[in-house]
Amino acid sequence: MIIALNAQRLLAFQTQCFKLQPLLPPIQTLRSIRVQSLSPHKALSSLHCRAMSTFGPSVQVKEKIDLTEKEKQIFDRLLEVLRYFNLKTQLRVAGGWVRDKLLGKDCYDIDIALDDMLGREFCEKVNEYLSCKGEETQGVGVIQCNPDQSKHLETARMRLFDVWIDFVNLRSEDYSESSRIPRMRFGTAEEDAYRRDLTINSLFYNINTSSVEDFTGRGIADLKSGKIVTPLPAKETFLDDPLRVLRAIRFGARFEFMLDEELKEAAACDEVKAAIADKISRERIGHEINLMISGKQPVKAVSYICDLQLFSVVFSLPPDFEPATSEGFDRLCIAYMDAAWNLLRLAGTSTFSDDERRLYLYAALFLPFMETVYPDKKGNKIPVVNHIFRCSLKLKVSDAETVIHIHSASQKFITLIPFITSNEDNQNVEVDWKREILEVSGTSRMRILAGLLLRQIKGFWRVALLVSTLLYPRNMERSQDFSDNQFNLDDRRETFMTVETAIIKLGLEKIWEVRPMINGRDIMSVLQLKTGGPAVKEWDKLLQWQLAHPSGTAEEFLDWMRQSHSKRAKTE
Questions:
Q1: What does the pLDDT look like over 154-180, one tens digit per residue?
Q2: What's the pLDDT score for residue 402?
Q3: pLDDT value of residue 42
Q4: Which of 69, 68, 72 is nearest to 207 (CA)?
Q5: Distance CA 477, CA 259 (A)
Q6: Which segments within 499-571 are labelled E, that is strand?
Q7: Could you give the 3-state DSSP secondary structure of residue 264?
Q8: 167: which of 288, 366, 392, 467 lies 20 to 30 Å off by Cα?
Q9: What is the mean pLDDT of the chain?
């Protein structure tokens, strides 16, 4: 199996490139534990991820919030509304905007918390004020309570100075044992702060007083020291709403902050694991994982999941699958993802779109499951990756299909890489996934094979090619001594670029957009076929002929097909 044959090389690879904090111990440590005497899976399971360092970063935090001109306009308008109606309402910007502004980052997500009225009621006051001043009123959208989407209270939204603003009342929460959906009531600013998921997200900016409010007493301190901490005891917080475990992981990875020891202990306990599985919808889990994979530190995020022993909880597998997973399979998944992430950064992230990058990382993460299947209700063997996407994460069906296609195409690319990268004649190119190929010259033969592969994977061919370089070559022996340079990223990037350039030179970059020069009816007419069944085989020959003769015409193909059919008829 390609995955097993490459696992040890992956371990040697971990310390290379970009001088990153290694996910796995350096090669000297690997040698000291005698990797050669272990299976790849056992070797990986004996290692400890370094994602959760003991020491947090020192973070530069501003002493005060500097407002942009647009923010000043918005806040001044809101204060005008208060003065006009003589309202005593305290207006506070909550959560992420405050955190990001203190970190010196731009943020356009403004959530206003109100202490004595609903968001909808305040938006009506804003429009009443605008009308009195002869200005155009704004439409108000009301987002109803939707706990499955983490909307526990009604939220009103309106546009001010071309910026969407959300308005919601301060709240306090009470949870039942069987659900992560709380019973809500109006609360004080302090109660609202303590019911937040993390201290760094519990800060307020009071618009009335132009000041930052830290009701937990440690939000700013934790921001400065780079710590992910819950306002209330971590276990209580997570059992109330287990989704907060994944949010803590996501923010920890995003800002490269240290997870609090109490938080880690609580997140890894059996009660919280059970709560994650039982109380959170799979859609919400998938949403959080998607945000992690799409973020700036995807490997760190999934490493946190692994270190907190949540990998099997999040990426749950069907009850009946084969072959069985080996010990340490979760770390093997992360090792491949880490390799893929570093290779992508070396090759250039601009090579891929955001969606291609996201699915590329998913494909790398699930490489150890590439040959793992489970039976459906009809007894058909289905890739386990399909179950992970559609059941464990409840992500799009197209995501599952694309990653499965990437895995399949990467295997096929591996068989083509040695021929494309060599300077030898490719007349004798043979692959196990396409036996019947037209008898043409070496270059044309390669164009046929590469073209057919690209027509299958379409716009994700670069993704599949980059994944294939992680697995190439596949004829390595388990007992080999894998040295530091055998998983060299530069070599793999060179392989990727060489094959990519060759495909472009062959004129195949968007070959799937090229339409067949004739249709099935033309084939049936020329061959005098009464049914369409026999034409299917001829259709495959049409695609091959068109790939081998990019400048050929429909008439030339039909002449070739008549001659070919005539020769077959004589031999039969």
A1: 899 999 999 999 999 998 766 555 554
A2: 98
A3: 35
A4: 72
A5: 40
A6: none
A7: helix
A8: 288
A9: 84
Read off the DSSP letter of residue 322: B
Please give the structure tokens belonging to residue 142: 């009301």
Residue ranges of the chain whose pLDDT lies below 70: 1-56, 145-153, 173-185, 423-429, 474-487, 527-538, 568-572
Q: Which of 403, 404, 516 is nearest to 451 (CA)?
A: 516
Position 13 scores a pLDDT of: 46
> For residue 487, what pLDDT is reported?
67
Residue 126 contacts residue 81 (beta carbons within 8 Å): yes
Q: What are φ and ψ of residue 160, in 5° steps?
A: -130, 125
pLDDT of residue 5: 47
* Rounded CA separation 183/557 (Å): 71
Give residue for tokens 């690209």.
454
pLDDT per position as a tens digit, 11-21: 544 434 333 33
CB burial of residue 505 (10 Å; 0-12, 13-18, 19+): exposed
For 390-393, the CB contacts below 8 A with 24+ separation are: 391/282, 391/316, 391/318, 392/282, 392/285, 392/286, 392/314, 392/315, 392/316, 392/317, 393/282, 393/285, 393/286, 393/289, 393/290, 393/314, 393/315
Region of 435 on the Ramachandran plot (φ > 0 left; ψ -120 to 50 alpha; else beta): alpha
For 369, other C-beta atoms within 10 Å of its C-beta total 23
**For residue 43, what are the CA distances in angstroms to 36, 195, 312, 472, 552?**
9, 42, 19, 21, 54
CA neighbor of 393 nearest in space, from 432, 359, 342: 359
Element (H, E) at 420: helix 397-421
Q: Which of 155, 194, 158 is nearest to 174 (CA)?
A: 194
Say how far apart CA 465 and CA 461 lie, in whole Å.
Answer: 6
Q: What is the rounded CA–CA span in Å between residue 118 and residue 142?
A: 11
Please tell me whether residue 421 adopts helix, strand or coil conformation. Answer: helix
* Contact yes or no for 535/529 (Cβ under 8 A): yes
* Matching residue, tokens 């001109």: 69
Task: Please give the Cα distance from 117 to 168 (Å, whole number).
Answer: 8
Q: How far is CA 66 from the centre of its chain?
A: 33
Gap between the Cα atoms of 404 and 369, Å rounded: 10
Q: Is the pTM of this model over 0.70?
A: yes
Cα dihedral sign, 413-415-419-421: positive
Residue 303: phi, psi to the nearest 5? -65, -40
Strand (E) or helix (H) holding 342: helix 329-347
Using the Cα atoms of residue 563, residue 564, residue 566 and residue 570 in order, give the sign of their dihedral: positive
What pLDDT does 149 receive? 43
pLDDT at residue 74 in the model: 97
